[in-house]
Design goal:
The structure holds 2 protein chains of 2 kinds.
Chain A: H1 2-17, E1 22-29, H2 35-46, E2 65-74, E3 77-85, H3 96-99, H4 105-125, E4 131-137, H5 145-156, E5 161-166, H6 175-181, E6 187-189, H7 198-212
Parallel strand pairs in A: 1-3, 1-4, 4-5, 5-6
Antiparallel strand pairs in A: 2-3
Chain B: H1 2-27, E1 30-33, H2 36-39, H3 43-54, E2 59-63, H4 68-81, E3 91-97, H5 104-117, E4 122-128, E5 132-137, E6 142-146
Parallel strand pairs in B: 1-2
Antiparallel strand pairs in B: 2-4, 3-4, 5-6
The chains are: A alpha/beta, B alpha+beta.
Chain lengths: 213, 149
């Protein structure tokens, strides 16, 4: 009973004192979907600096990375974001996969251990988000259980979701398949690397903010 | 002395053969789990039950579907075990629903049933990553690929 009252008070006061316009925007998805690339693109467009390093090796982001006070202004609209880039969520990790990228056994084992901890952190942070962008690599099969699990959790927590199909600049990209896999959601196709279709993405981001407020 | 050595070699070969055939048998064990087996468990109980079977190197075919929060708990639990349990690399999981095109009345009926008895009109496959290489899922089918051993 005390716990319920405490939680209610916490929610009430955090709602009252929540800084107007500050939106905690999370980037979720499988490893190598392009979460950090998109977070970097947004930071570059509005701050002129990067948020984190990117790599073709999976699990490059193994800790939560935050960039505060990212202000987006468009057609008289202004929103302040706290960008939260999360480690990619996977159901399995084999350190031997990292050996293919030239890491030594011990380095690979350390990376694997850090990656497992990163996934646990990502899941824990789900509760703290105001809105989430789920990144999906449009060149691979979108019917992955990780994508379904992430979106299912966000829906259960009533957190607004925008699905972003990344890597549309690549030949293998199939945005129709992504839309077919998630027909109930808005899907916007972009290339975080080349900057394709970022205008439409920002438009959808403003729509997402409205749902989060 | 020489004879004794030969006997030891033969014995070790025999035990190696036994081990191989035993591990092959283990690798291909499938556990069919009716929803009733986990229906009365809470989130922790369900995850514990599933992980117990996975750690015995068995593939689970579950009648029904786990809730999203149960799936994340399962992933969290698997991540905790990687590195702490020898040769454990995590899990592969995929769920497939029944037919999705329903009338409004059917949808309401199914949602009520879902609240009352859980989502049983689905199949979930969960397997240890050391045995299950990949589970590919299309809207209407699941393909299970095993590791080459």
């Amino acid at each position: 009973m005390i716990k319920i009252i405490r939680n209610f008070a916490k929610r009430l006061f955090s709602g009252v004192f929540k800084k107007k316009g500050e939106i905690k925007l999370g980037f979720y998805g499988s490893p190598n979907a392009g979460k950090t690339s998109l977070a970097n693109k947004i930071c570059q467009d509005w701050l002129g600096e990067d948020l984190g390093s990117v790599s073709s090796m999976p699990h490059e982001t193994r800790e939560i990375q935050i960039k505060e006070k990212v202000v987006l202004e468009k057609d008289g609209r202004k929103v302040e974001f706290k960008l939260i880039d999360t480690p990619g969520i996977a159901t399995k990790i084999d350190f031997e996969d990292f050996l293919k990228f030239g890491l030594k056994k011990k380095e690979a084992q350390t990376r694997a251990k850090e990656a497992t901890q990163g996934i646990i952190e990502s899941i824990k942070w789900l509760d703290d988000m105001d809105a989430v962008i789920v990144l999906i690599d449009s060149t691979v099969n979108p019917y992955s259980q990780v994508n379904i699990t992430i979106i299912g959790n966000l829906v259960a927590r009533k957190i607004p979701v925008l699905i972003v199909a990344n890597k549309i600049d690549l030949k293998k990209s199939d945005i129709k398949k992504v839309r077919g896999a998630f027909p109930e959601y808005e899907v916007v196709g972009i290339s975080a690397k080349s900057g394709d279709n970022m205008e439409e993405f920002y438009e959808e981001l403003f729509k997402l903010v409205k749902k989060a407020k | 002395m020489v004879k004794k050595k030969k006997v030891v070699k033969k014995a070790s070969r025999k035990s190696a053969k036994k081990k191989t055939s035993k591990s092959l048998k283990d690798n291909l064990a499938i556990h069919f789990m009716p929803y009733s087996e986990i229906s009365k468990e809470d989130v922790i109980g369900r995850v514990k039950k599933i992980m117990g079977i996975i750690l015995k190197n068995r593939i689970i075919i579950l009648q029904g579907k786990l809730r999203p929060e149960e799936e994340t708990k399962l992933i969290e639990n698997s991540m905790t075990l990687i590195g702490n349990i020898p040769n454990f690399q995590g899990i592969e999981i995929a769920a497939i629903n029944g037919e999705n095109e329903f009338s409004l009345f059917d949808k309401v009926r199914r949602n009520i049933a879902k609240i009352l008895i859980g989502e049983q009109d689905a199949i979930t496959i969960i397997g240890p990553a050391t045995i299950v290489k990949e589970i590919t899922r299309d809207p209407k089918k699941i393909e299970l690929m095993l590791q080459n051993r």
